[in-house]
Amino acid sequence: MTNEEMKSLIAKALDMRNFSYAPYSQYKVGAALLAADGTVYTGCNIENAAYTPSNCAERTAFFKAVSEGVKEFKAIAICGGKEGADVLDDCSPCGVCRQVMSEFCDDEFIIICAKSLDDFTVCTLPECLPDRFGPSNLIRPKM
């Protein structure tokens, strides 16, 4: 993945923070998910007063894509921080989001955690979730 492609995803993730619904934490997160076919699915975090029904930006993007029949992905950019903050945090996916990524992504999947267009870190899914549990642990070949 080129630096320009990464920056394009980061820009979309940064923009998605504007749609975040985070009245309780004031922590706004945006995500941009690149499908294998080149389509980008976006998401933001959506909080709920009961907390448990809240949804992370990453899962919002994945669920939008899967609900449209897309199940192959190349990369995701994630940006997050307190509302109104000048500097964003190094926003890494939570454990539940990592597990969702594990369901649909291979070892080449790239995770971009960005503070800005020029300040970001990149890792692969196995680096982010070593010894992961996924479909291959449950699906057995037919005999």
Please describe what this structure looks like.
- The protein is an alpha+beta fold.
- It is built from 4 helices and 5 strands, in the order H-E-E-H-E-H-E-E-H.
- It has a 5-stranded mixed β-sheet.
- Strand 3, helix 3 (95-104) and strand 4 (110-114) form a beta-alpha-beta unit.
Which key phrases capture this entry?
single chain, 143 residues, alpha+beta, 4 helices, 5 strands
Write a brief caption for the model:
This protein has helices at residues 3-16, 57-67, 95-104, 125-128, and strands spanning 27-35, 40-44, 73-82, 110-114, 120-124. With 143 residues, the protein is an alpha+beta fold.
Reconstruct the topology from this structure.
Elements: H1 3-16, E1 27-35, E2 40-44, H2 57-67, E3 73-82, H3 95-104, E4 110-114, E5 120-124, H4 125-128
Parallel strand pairs: 3-4
Antiparallel strand pairs: 1-2, 1-3, 4-5
